[in-house]
């Protein structure tokens, strides 16, 4: 063993030195670790969006605090109704419900009619009408909205409430939300990458496509509820003046929407949902697609407006102290809403019950809810929560297959989005000036012109033939962008801003694309934009709509605030361009956008004259392709401007860049599939001196294209 020591020691030393060199090389590409104060930035993008939201909420708070009189609150209600309608969008025309009762059950004094109706043509809503077996006239009715569970109203906890209502003399119409119960859209079938999704993803996966098309998916959810009320009013057993709505969790969302938007709802008891957006964003974060109203915070609205707009109609907030929806926010909401009810002379019509429990239905809360509806729907009796045997889930199935799409081949959220998008042709920009398009982009993205702030030099490292410099560049919010600058020994006086959605590290490796560009004499600037590389998101609150490693919840935050993620990155790219101009004294740079950030770089280039040439590699060809593919890839969504396709699409931006040179290579559709040459030429008809199209995005081709610059 002693004889081997001299051999082992040099080997270990070499290994150690090799590892040290490798680690140091890796560390050279990371900027934030050196700056301990700035190191905790992975959530910078979320915090930046939250700061936008908090500013909007503070403005609303000041406005609401100034309300004093009945007239003040009534004026506020008028404004809120208008803004809520804008946030939901225009409701469809009412078409025939065409209800069909498919079966009946009767047990222990309870009758159940299993049925479906069409809230839109061929858009089938499966439901069950529960009624007391003996009494068949003048019944008060409850519309029951289910939370995010796959069985929907068939689950035991929901049946416990439904059957208690019936025993107490109420009729209950319980219906399946889209994506739950018998309305599951993404059943597991061969060849489907996205299938067997949990309910929040059943909502958010097609819901994101709906937002892309400019339609708030919540509109469909509240419309189903409105049509459910319409159905109740066709039944002779129901008293039209005594209709209530309740639901927990996702059902709390739907019931709060319906209560705010349908004046026929006399009494409402949303459960485990209502809080303030201030507390929601600080805790669990934005929720799934149907819980997001377009521009809600930008319009000066908060969840409290869903309650206050109802005053003086009776409302009960049903809450738990350890709910995912902040109890503290619920109490704040209640205190604010009390002022509206008091001003309108109906303070006793607003109530709140809370129990010491997690996100759950409790006996105390159930009994408080029964008593609330018994009082306000004039149906007195005992509010005790009885133990009633539930029906088996299969017994309550409306269709033979247990899935309405398999049974009736009706519309889904995806098919409705396709039809909606095809019916609304984009506004033609032909003949419009580029200034007109710029104004449209600014309005839709939420872009704000940034000002270059602090730049922090963070060290220089020699490499073969060039130096590698590190910087922190102040972003448009309270965070810094990590930047690598490759400086050649023999510069040709041209700079390339290279932006990769996977972050700067890959391109910065020895032998990587930056290495090749700098060896050719280019200065190369490699940043991490927010959401990539050192600024990749981590520990986003909630995350109930994370799919394929992409947080749709983060994108939803931008929809709430009307500050798109594209706008944030546009501002970051402009700051980086100003940084380059300041450092080099040049007036123009070439930009390269790679991967999912292609739309962000394209948008930024339109507003940044200093970017003289643009290469877009391996990116999305059109926003519209995301709603043409049922099995689209979620990773493209964060770089979409919601609703933009009704005004412009990516080819329009490329056309507007003329005469600046643009090269597109490796273009894909929303499913990540390569776009054929013929299809590419159809989408981008401005091919010529201004535009070059290529099926390959190889480094050699990029170097050749850059070399064409005069």
From TrEMBL:
UniProt keywords, alphabetically: Signal
Source species, please?
Answer: Larkinella punicea
Stretch forming the signal peptide: 1-25
Question: Among its keywords, does the record have Signal?
Answer: yes
Which top-rank group of organisms is this from?
Bacteria
- Protein name in the entry: Xylan esterase
What positions does the domain Acetyl xylan esterase occupy? 107-281
């Amino acid at each position: 063993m002693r004889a081997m020591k001299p051999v082992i020691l040099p080997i270990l030393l070499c290994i150690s030195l090799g590892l040290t060199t490798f680690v140091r090389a890796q560390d050279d590409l990371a900027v934030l670790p050196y700056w301990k104060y700035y190191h905790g930035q992975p959530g910078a993008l979320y915090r930046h969006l939250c700061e936008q939201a908090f500013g909007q909420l503070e403005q609303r708070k000041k406005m609401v605090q100034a309300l004093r009189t009945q007239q003040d609150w009534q004026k506020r209600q008028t404004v809120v109704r208008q803004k809520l309608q804008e946030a939901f969008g225009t409701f469809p025309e009412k078409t025939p419900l065409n209800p069909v009762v498919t079966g009946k059950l009767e047990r222990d004094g309870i009758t159940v009619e299993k049925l479906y109706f069409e809230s839109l043509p061929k858009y089938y809503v499966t439901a069950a009408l529960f009624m007391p077996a003996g009494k068949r006239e003048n019944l008060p009715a409850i519309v029951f909205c289910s939370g995010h569970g796959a069985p929907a109203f068939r689950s035991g906890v929901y049946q416990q409430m439904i059957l208690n209502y019936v025993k107490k003399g109420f009729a209950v119409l319980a219906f399946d939300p889209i994506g739950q119960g018998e309305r599951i859209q993404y059943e597991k079938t061969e060849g489907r990458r996205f299938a067997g999704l949990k309910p929040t993803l059943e909502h958010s996966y097609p819901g994101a496509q709906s937002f892309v098309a400019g339609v708030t998916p919540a509109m469909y959810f509240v419309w189903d509820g409105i049509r459910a009320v319409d159905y109740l009013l066709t039944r002779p057993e129901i008293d039209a003046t005594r209709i209530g709505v309740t639901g927990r969790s996702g059902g709390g969302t739907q019931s709060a929407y319906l209560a705010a938007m349908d004046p026929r709802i006399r009494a409402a008891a949303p459960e485990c949902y209502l809080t303030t957006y201030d507390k929601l964003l600080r805790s669990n974060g934005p929720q799934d697609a149907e819980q997001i109203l377009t521009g809600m915070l930008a319009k000066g609205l908060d969840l409290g407006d869903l309650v206050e707009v109802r005053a003086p109609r009776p409302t009960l907030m049903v809450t738990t102290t350890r709910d995912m929806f902040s109890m503290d926010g619920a109490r704040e909401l209640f205190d604010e809403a009390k002022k509206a009810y008091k001003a309108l002379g109906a303070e006793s019509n607003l109530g709140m019950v809370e129990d010491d429990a997690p996100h759950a239905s409790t006996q105390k809360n159930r009994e408080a809810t029964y008593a609330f509806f018994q009082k306000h729907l004039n149906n007195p009796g005992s509010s005790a929560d009885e133990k009633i045997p539930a029906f088996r889930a299969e017994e309550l199935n409306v269709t033979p297959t247990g899935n309405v799409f398999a049974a009736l081949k009706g519309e889904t959220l995806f098919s409705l989005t396709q039809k909606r998008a095809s019916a609304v042709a984009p506004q033609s920009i032909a003949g419009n000036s580029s200034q007109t398009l710029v104004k449209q982009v600014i309005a839709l993205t939420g872009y704000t012109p940034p000002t270059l702030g602090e730049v922090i030099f963070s060290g220089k490292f020699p490499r073969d033939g060039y130096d590698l410099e590190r910087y922190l560049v102040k972003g448009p919010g309270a965070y810094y962008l990590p930047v690598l600058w490759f400086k050649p020994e023999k510069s040709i006086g041209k700079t390339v801003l290279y932006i990769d959605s996977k972050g700067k590290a890959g391109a910065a490796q020895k032998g990587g694309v930056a290495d090749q560009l700098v060896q050719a004499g280019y200065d190369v600037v490699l940043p991490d934009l927010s959401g990539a590389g050192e600024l990749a998101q981590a520990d986003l609150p909630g995350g109930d709509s994370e799919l394929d490693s992409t947080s749709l919840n983060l994108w939803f935050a931008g929809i709430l605030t009307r500050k798109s993620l594209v706008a944030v990155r546009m501002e970051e790219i402009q700051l980086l361009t100003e940084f380059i101009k300041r450092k080099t004294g040049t007036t123009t740079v070439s930009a390269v956008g790679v991967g999912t950030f292609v739309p962000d770089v394209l948008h930024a280039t339109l507003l940044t004259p200093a970017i003289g040439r643009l290469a877009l590699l391996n990116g999305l060809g059109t926003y519209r392709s995301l709603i043409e593919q049922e099995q689209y890839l979620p990773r493209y969504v964060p770089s979409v401007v919601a609703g933009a396709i009704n005004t412009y699409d990516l080819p329009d931006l490329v056309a507007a860049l003329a005469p600046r040179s643009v090269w597109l290579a490796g273009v894909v559709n929303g499913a990540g599939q390569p776009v054929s040459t013929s299809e590419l030429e159809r989408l981008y008809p401005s091919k010529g001196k201004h535009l070059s199209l290529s099926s390959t995005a190889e480094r050699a081709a990029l170097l050749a294209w850059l070399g064409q610059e005069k």
